[in-house]
């Protein structure tokens, strides 16, 4: 009987607990974020109070008491975007779902639970990211240079590089258009190539989401473009020759005709 004692005691005095399985959570653009939170359950939820609150400014993200959602004091930032699994509450699950996550959602979230067993809290740190879309390439050619440009959207700001054939960093221009309403950065990166032959690689790293994109661009200026002009010139020259030849023939025939008619006229006069 004695050996059982510590276990029984441990069970009796088991403190009320609130546990978050993921203390660091990455919310991905376009997917709902589920902030997990568990507590020592009490099947009777009549005394249950669940409050999700931002750590930085204590604004209310979601709250539940009197056995229902209480959203009068909810921060407008979270309106219609939060959801508790109400049927799970009696089992000790106070996980919160947030939809349409955006950069402003980044930060600390306190899961605060009180029931007949006690009261406690736990913190979830939320980060937000969006995978960069497939970069769109455009090539602008003018008389002095070739400008390569990639455009893409994602979050947070990426690390961008243009690498030469030898793998060296090339100087490039970067334009970041501030956050769109969708919570994405619009990125434009361009590289000005001077030489005729272009062999470079555009690289993009989204460190938060371990996204690595490498997009090689190879542009070859073949002599073919120059020799393509040749047949056209030859044809034009040949046609000019033919026209000239025909003109000469016509002229010759005309002169002969003029001569013969003038002879005829002379006879007539005689
Ligand atoms: C809580 O319940 C939801 C919905 O069933 C589930 O997805 C989630 O994993 C649960 N969380 C915990 C911490 O048990
Ligand atoms: C471009 O550079 C890569 C990397 O050095 C090389 O493997 C590839 O053959 C080059 N392509 C051309 C067309 O020169
Ligand atoms: C290129 O620059 C990045 C920083 O933007 C650096 O991390 C990387 O090591 C550089 N690569 C080379 C080959 O110099």
UniProtKB/TrEMBL annotation:
Ig-like domain boundaries: 15-127
Main localisation: membrane
Cell location: Membrane
SMART domains per UniProt: IG, IGv
A single BP term in Gene Ontology: T cell activation
Molecular functions per Gene Ontology: signaling receptor binding
Pfam families: C2-set_3 (PF22705), V-set (PF07686)
Keywords: Disulfide bond, Glycoprotein, Immunoglobulin domain, Membrane, Signal, Transmembrane, Transmembrane helix
Transmembrane segments: 232-254
Gene3D superfamilies in the record: Immunoglobulins
Range of residues in the leader sequence: none
Cellular component per GO, a single term: external side of plasma membrane
Highest taxon above the source species: Eukaryota
Family affiliation: Belongs to the SKINT family.
PANTHER family, sorted: BUTYROPHILIN, CD276 ANTIGEN
Name of the protein: Ig-like domain-containing protein
Source species of the chain: Triplophysa tibetana
Top-level taxonomy: Eukaryota, Metazoa, Chordata, Craniata, Vertebrata
